[in-house]
Amino acid sequence: MAERSVAVRAQVRDVDPDAAFARLRDFPSYAEHAEVVRGISLDVDAQGNQVSSWSVWFRNGLLEWTERDLVDETARTLSFQQVTGDLARFDGAWQVAEQDAGVTVSFNAVIDLGIPSLADMLDPLAERAVRTNTTDILRGLFGPDIEFGSAAS
């Protein structure tokens, strides 16, 4: 398996941490902020967990998957794990942490396309696509004044 890690950190000034987390949880709005996001729908599984189904453009086709989203309002953490879909593995977490004059938003994920014969070529592209799309989504959610850390290059 050729797993790739993706980390994005951003600082947002003058925003309440709970309000920032509420924006981050609004997955369906992501399509408004990243052109590659074709659509996201939300549902609830038998255990009462949020389940989101994603459809995104990657290269010349669509990647589709469903993930279980575990929301912790108190810790302002949203963990996700793919349960079905086109990827061999996609899981990680979003977190909003209060700082002096705003918040730090963190995204950490592990992705594996599951195509060993093409891993050297496709996995770096997937990693870059996840990073780029995450920064686009964050800019759309929080505006152009968002400041990215070195992990968002």
Describe the 3D structure:
The protein has helices at 17-25, 119-142, and strands at 4-13, 37-44, 50-58, 61-72, 77-85, 89-99, 102-112, 147-148. β3 (50-58) and β4 form a beta hairpin. It has 153 residues and is an alpha+beta fold. The protein is globular and about 45 Å long. The longest helix has 24 residues, at 119-142. It has a domain at 4-25 and 70-152: 2-Layer Sandwich (Alpha-D-Glucose-1,6-Bisphosphate, Chain A, domain 4). Strands 2-3-4-5-6-7-1-8 form an 8-stranded antiparallel β-sheet, covered by helices on one side.
Topology:
Elements (H helix, E strand, L loop, with lengths): L3 E10 L3 H9 L11 E8 L5 E9 L2 E12 L4 E9 L3 E11 L2 E11 L6 H24 L4 E2 L5
Antiparallel strand pairs: 1-7, 1-8, 2-3, 3-4, 4-5, 5-6, 6-7
**What is the assigned CATH homologous superfamily of one domain?**
START domain
Q: Regions with pLDDT < 50 over 5+ consecutive residues?
A: none
* Helix/strand order: EHEEEEEEHE
CATH architecture of one domain: 2-Layer Sandwich
CATH structural class of one domain: Alpha Beta
The total of beta strands comes to 8
Average predicted local confidence, pLDDT? 89
Largest sheet: 8 strands, antiparallel
* Overall SS class: alpha+beta
The neighbouring-strand order within the major sheet is 2-3-4-5-6-7-1-8
C-alpha Rg, in Å? Answer: 15 Å
How much strand content do the residues show?
A: over 45%
Shape summary: globular
Question: What distance lies between the first and last C-alpha atoms, to the nearest angstrom?
Answer: 25 Å
What's the helical proportion of residues? 10-25%
